[in-house]
Amino acid sequence: MFAPASRKTDVPSALRRNLVRLAPLGLLVLAGCAGRDDLYVLLPGKAKTGALTVTSGGERRVLDQPYAAARVTRTGSVNARVTTEAEVRRAFGPALAAQPGRPVSFYLYFLADTDEFTLESKQVVNQIFAEIARRPAPEIVIIGHTDRVGSVQYNDALSLKRADRVREELRKLGIPKVRISVAGRGKREPEISTADEVPEPRNRRVEINVR
Amino acid sequence: MRSVLISLALPIVLTLGAASAEAAEDAGHIKVSNGIVQIERSGQRLPAPVGSVVQQGDLVITGADGSVGITFRDNSLLSVGPDSVLSIDRFVFDSTTHQGAFESSLKQGTLAVVSGKLAKQSPDAMTVKTPAAILGVRGTEFLVRTGQSKD
To answer: What's the pTM value of the predicted model, to 2 decimals?
Structure first.
């Protein structure tokens, strides 16, 4: 009939613990009464539509179709539905209008095992300067790439050397005063997929990303 | 084996040792700024015109007529509508390997996202939080609205 003494004293403290635990929940419920107005929408991508996972209160939904949408209700559950372009424009107009211009890449190509670029590449430079001129607060990122001949370390160094060389050339050609950064991707991102150790001129390039 | 150990140890060393250096590095730049746009950094509010730097730890805040567009170092594009608060919780990007992390929180308002190189390299690299949910990004464009409803 009698609970052990230790248990007796435990009951009130367990109750207190539970009350303490429940207090934030009560606040959540009160806040929830005001109602949430959350909406998450997956847009069709330029190349492909990706996916968005929405996790709320232990519930998980995957949005993977264009204009798939999720609403989070006042109880915290996730309701999925499909919205429209017109609805999206109404709800997100100013945020969409403030999107920065998409970054654009230009490519300069190199002679094998050198940091000398080909003649036709020099014409691309004018296009790069025009792109810089039409952007607010423009930046350029000069990214070196190599073909897959040689080790990762060798190609990392070579790609960076090519990128540095292009930075020097652009400076000599009087590039406008913009933020320039340099990166070497080595052989990680070939334009043309090849087996390792295959020479491929189209992979020996420097990418000029203007943003 | 040694290179595996080094590559495992390096991020830990960077996380422990260079938290301030990491924070000081530019995460992105403001390309579009309309109406009232401010950045809160170390407790101070600064105006945020076109060309301003955005860093890890910043709060980006817009007024009732404000909107702002930011291009990050990995080419992620984030733009925010009026009456919004966006926190840049974490931004780490290795321009050689494209490894890193981009974590942000929309506290209130509207946000449009075009994911960049981080999300393309690894599906778990980019997350956006709201007070109600966590969004995981699988290389994509999406919209987020969060706040209390008016009724």
So the answer is: 0.82
